[in-house]
Amino acid sequence: MLSKTLSAGVRGIGGFLVSVEVDISPGLPTFNMVGLPDAEVREARDRVVAAIKNSGYDFPLKRITVNLGPAEVKKSGTHFDLPIALGIIAASGQLHEEALDCLKHSVFAGELALDGELRPVAGILPMLSSLRGNGAKLAVVPKANSAEAAVAGFDAVCSDSLKGVLRGLEGKQEFSACSSADRPSPVEFSAAEGDLSEVKGQALAKRALEIAAAGGHNLLMIGPPGSGKSMLAKRFSSILPPMSSDEALEVTKVYSVAGMLRGERLVARRPFRDPHHTVSDVALIGGGSVPRPGEVSLAHNGVLFLDELAEFSRASLEALREPLENSRVTISRARESVSFPARFTLIAATNPCPCGYSGCAGKTCTCTPLQVRRYLSRMSGPLLDRIDLAVRLSPVKYDEWRGGPAGETSAAVRGRVLAARDIQRQRFAGSGVTANAFMQVAQSRNFCRIPDGGGEILETAMKKLGLSARSLDKILKVARTIADLEGSAEIKKEHLTEVIQYRAIDRTAVSE
Questions:
Q1: Peptide bond into 241 cis (omega under 30)
Q2: pTM of the model
Q3: CA-CA 20 to 30 A from 498: which of 208, 450, 487, 512?
Q4: What is the pLDDT of residues 375-396, one digit of tens each?
């Protein structure tokens, strides 16, 4: 006897419909699975057999063939356990006719424990979001995934066991609804470790952080140990604007695929990822035999903080160039190519040399010129060219540390950032661009016009600092952000002058 039901798979942060066909025929007891299942899917055989028996149903001792279509697309994940088990029970004649009709038009996803309990799985949100218009009428998911399913925009119910699903299909008990609460609006500000006012001195770095937050610009801080680089970076989240509903949905899909939602409906706060410098390039960018999002995608619409930038491997840093340029990571394998979003603000910090005290007054650098060059050469020119702002930090003076005037609070700075972002939201309405840093070429030409006398400033900076054409484009984008912070409709010469002081540590100056 043949039975058919539906499930779904995940590709990137999107989903696709999967047809689960089960055929039971006379012959020696075998359990074969076809349709490019990976190891996780093949292991479902043992879980399904035990779950069916322990749920009070008979497991047929016949020839069982399970086909997962489309057959040319690789299937991965443990969420196929539930539809396979339901297909076997249906094909062996243990379901009523009404339940069989519901089975054909419903989507099922869930991992089975040996006792038939339904366990949560990764990727429910992208799976269900892709089902609209595909002919499916209902989705049944584990109870632990109900909060995630409630925001997918698809009619979904949940259960906590295989037996509960079967009783629901037969009308013997009601499924639990996944949409009992309204979809929340993610208006929370990012969690932060402290307030910006707690950082003593470093007025130039604080101004650079404000500009970076207002326009989504990448920032590099170079300074000796103890100058406040990490402290400033960890307080960057406190001045960021909240995510929009669309941004929160994108981030939630990424975290759903990564299996990191932990029962949340939406990721309401902007991500802040700070991987250790020993991270591999695969963990940073994403990949694996079954492609999974890396740190750059987990930081989507948020912040990627790389402390001790020069300590990261050269391969990891060079892999950052594509996401910094395209706001997306493409991972290619023999059978498929998967893309993950990676639009983030990079905040990086590094010492000026291995010992940390090169160019630091009152401290003696113990590094040789060759050691300094090797250390800084890990940050290649093409990578530095993709960083919008760079500032040098000096050691905090005693007077500033002991009793200096209190700096602005994060709330005060955030007020200006929100005003600037509101201008950008109106400027880029309907274009998909969220901040000045992500402007396309045509938009940059339209909104970043060089003021009278500004051409000479840019030409001088290009000659003295060895700036590339990309760097000049970034200068104009940052100047547009400074103009937005001031509420100016046009870029002014003083805006360009201020930006250039943040490029004074470009390739030429960094390698001094």
A1: no
A2: 0.89
A3: 512
A4: 888 888 889 889 999 999 888 8
